[in-house]
Amino acid sequence: MNGFAHALSLDESGDLPLFLRIARAVRDDVRRGRLLPGAALPGSRTLATQLGVHRNTVLAAFRELAAEGWIETRPAGGTYVSGDIPRELPRRLAKAATRAGFSLPAAPSPRPPEPPPNTFVLAAGTPDLRLVPRDLVARAYRRALRSAPLGYVPPEGHPRLRTALTEMLAELRGLTFDRDALLVTRGAQAALDLTARVLLDGHPGAAVAVEALGYRPAWQAFRAAGARLVPVPVDEHGLAVDALAEIEGLRAVYLTPHHQYPTTVTLSPARRLALLALARARRFAIVEDDYDFEFHYEGRPVLPLASDDQSGNVIYVGTLAKILAPALRLGFLAGPAPFVAHATALRIAIDRQGDPALELAVAELLEDGELQRHVRRVRRAYRERRDALLAALDRHLEGTLVARKPPGGMAAWAEVRGVDAETLVAAAAREGVSFLPGRAYAFDGRARPFVRLGYASLDPSELDEAMRRVARGLGRRR
Ligand SMILES: Cc1ncc(COP(=O)(O)O)c(C=O)c1O
After folding, report:
1. 125 Cα nearest atom in ligand 1
2. C-alpha span between 336 and 478 (Å, rounded)
3. Which residue has a Cα nearest atom 2 of ligand 1?
4. Ligand 1, CB within 6 Å, residue ranges
5. pTM for this structure?
6. Number of domains the chain contains
7. Alpha-carbon distance 149 to 164, whole Å?
8. Per-residue pLDDT tens for 420-466?
9. Is residue 365 part of a domain?
């Protein structure tokens, strides 16, 4: 019974006599399954020493437990958890816990299964984790851990990271926010969740427009906050801004204007101006998800809507998931100061703050230019991969999978011809290649003759092999 005394936690409060508190602690441990039926208890002398009580107190507790049938003494000596009644208890408790004793909303939809191991996963937006500069991050984190405050810190994020991010956004994206307008969050998802909650506070059931082909986790955040989602079509110029004018009581629009998710198109200059003007006139918020802002390969990147916002309508959301790693959970939001103040106050009620050491570490990587060097390296790699994917499509799937060259980002949106997208995805899966059909991105859940092929996480030879397998799965050998 090593460790028993450590595990046995005596209730410090209340007026119960000590022997009853010991009895209760043993009983609770049996109930929780921490002490199993038939397990030996320490002798009364040992336990008395461990607990720092008189032996008679322990004996009195044992007498109490025996009288209630929780423990038994065996003729050969020794005290044991009773083999009878309590044997049932842990199982009964576990069974009860599988059902809630209160009402719940409809069951959440099941998560899609993980692709089996050794699959080529053309994930929609995951960077190549093999390229994550682990040593660099580890060294910076180790350094930061020595000096970062480890208590409760201001919820806005480490001031040095806020400064470094605002400088990066000014340089790369033409944004002129000052540091106070930026809140560091645990990933873009947390930024979207905060945004949704602030916007829907006091406006339950308000309309929020989303791209009819779009990013489901953002929809879920708005839905959870009580929004009524209104899908708006997307075409080769991006979101159909005209359609917004018809939505009554529009509170916000969520969109991915840079490389539309999942179709990769860029919002046209005319629509961008129209959207900003409409938001100003109708007083709704534009939630701009600039999720892959650093990856643009052709000419100059189009600057975010937020860089043109004169009227305080745009809430700008970004993530470091793509330039560093998704698991670090670092993202941010920036917008009109009163909005950011609301989001910050709300954050305290949710997860309070971020990880100051991690935030300081990443601030240092930005200040030293290390992260920028890493981004330049992976940008070159992803551009090469984009071209390799398109070449592999031509080589193995010409006429079946047809993709326009995406100007940036980490994925291509390929039209499926001569076979339906679901059949293609299933054939690919049988050959150990995983990607999602258009349906997975559709608000209406209806099939679309497209698939989204994430090319960033596989190298050129893997991309070629993956597309060769897809062709083989369709019975097209070359
Ligand atoms: C459209 C979009 N927004 C946001 C994110 C990133 O979110 P997070 O920072 O929560 O990982 C992704 C990642 O895949 C994305 O595709």
Report:
1. 14
2. 57
3. 291
4. 125, 187-189, 215, 256, 261, 289, 291, 319, 321, 326, 331
5. 0.82
6. 3
7. 18
8. 999 999 999 999 999 999 999 999 999 999 999 999 999 999 999 99
9. yes
